[in-house]
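Project outcomes to date are best conveyed with an example. Our students and postdoctoral researchers have been running inverse folding experiments weekly, and each run begins with a structure described purely in tokens. The record below, which covers 324 residues, was selected by the lab manager from last quarter's runs and is presented without edits.
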């Protein structure tokens, strides 16, 4: 839209210069009128600058992407205030269901019960893919014994069975030291995903420190050689100088293994869910969502996630345009 306005203004100004070059009083007057009209159009554009507020909440995993986009968007649209909370995927959906937010970030697909609650509340929504993530299992760099774990190892470590978990339980050559666990909180989509693919709906080890703030998990794992935890790939990338990532079934999370799906079963898509009514009725919401889809890939790569193929963003933009 901004490029189109610039092209139109340039065309008008070009016409004025051509008329002025022809000479004559009438041409000069016409030129002045054209310039005045151009000035008037510019003033009108400024008066019609987009204003409003947009609110979102949800996944801490998606937060680095969305917070980066919000910061850059603020420089583009100074009249639109965008706020994004980080109460976890589940907490974000609770606010979305209550109509408190325009969009909800999620590190897992929406659950059937959440979709049913939105339908009951009369909230129609659209799911937009943003990026790929590889849920990363990490230990302290002081841990010099763990390099690779199998899915069965992870389950043995993380499922509550009433025992005190020792590193030597996984490998008798490892230290006979108690394992210290850090994990995302139960409102987190990362917790839900781990629960689905690793715990298989069994209880998480009861001694784990849980937090919706991934930075707290990072700090805890950094400071304890017996600690282990998991969170989104971007948080590992941001702290790789002080953390060690653990390979799963011989595959380390990288941009390539996450995008290809070789880092299985811990590769996953990241989403945002937006209110159809907010998109269609509020130009600020539409503009922000359009900016998000146009910039999500670059921002995902910038903060440590993996961009989708361009055709996926094009599908999202088409779905957005259909709601306008």
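After processing, the design step wrote out the following sequence:
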């Amino acid at each position: 839209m901004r490029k189109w306005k610039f092209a139109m203004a340039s065309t008008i100004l070009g016409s004025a210069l051509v008329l002025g070059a022809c000479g004559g009083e009438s041409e000069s007057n016409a030129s002045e009128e054209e310039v005045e009209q151009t000035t008037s159009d510019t003033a009108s554009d400024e008066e019609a600058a987009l204003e409003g507020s947009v609110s979102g909440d949800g996944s801490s995993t998606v937060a680095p992407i969305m917070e980066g986009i919000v910061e850059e968007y603020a420089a583009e649209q100074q009249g639109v205030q965008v706020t994004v909370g980080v109460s976890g995927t589940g907490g974000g959906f609770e606010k979305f269901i209550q109509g408190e937010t325009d969009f909800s970030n999620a590190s897992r697909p929406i659950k059937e019960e959440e979709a049913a609650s939105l339908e009951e509340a009369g909230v129609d929504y659209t799911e937009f893919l943003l990026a790929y993530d590889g849920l990363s299992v990490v230990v302290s760099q002081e841990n010099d014994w763990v390099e690779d774990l199998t899915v069965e190892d992870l389950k043995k470590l993380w499922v509550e069975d009433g025992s005190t978990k020792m590193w030597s339980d996984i490998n008798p050559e490892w230290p006979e030291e108690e394992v210290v666990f850090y994990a995302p909180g139960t409102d987190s989509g990362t917790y839900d995903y781990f629960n689905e693919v690793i715990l298989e709906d069994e209880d998480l080890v009861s001694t784990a420190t849980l937090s919706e703030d991934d930075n707290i998990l990072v700090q805890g794992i950094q400071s304890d050689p017996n600690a282990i935890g998991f969170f989104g790939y971007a948080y590992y990338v941001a702290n790789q100088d002080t953390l060690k990532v653990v390979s799963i079934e011989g595959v380390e999370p990288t941009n390539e293994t996450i995008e290809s799906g070789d880092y299985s079963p811990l590769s996953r898509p990241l989403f945002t869910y937006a209110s159809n009514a907010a998109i269609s009725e509020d130009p600020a919401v539409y503009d922000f969502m359009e900016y998000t889809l146009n910039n999500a890939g670059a921002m995902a790569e910038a903060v440590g996630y993996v961009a989708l193929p361009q055709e996926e963003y094009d599908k999202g933009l088409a779905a957005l345009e259909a709601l306008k």
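The longest helix spans residues 25-47. Residues 1-30, 38-47 have pLDDT under 50 and may be disordered. The training component of this project remains on track.
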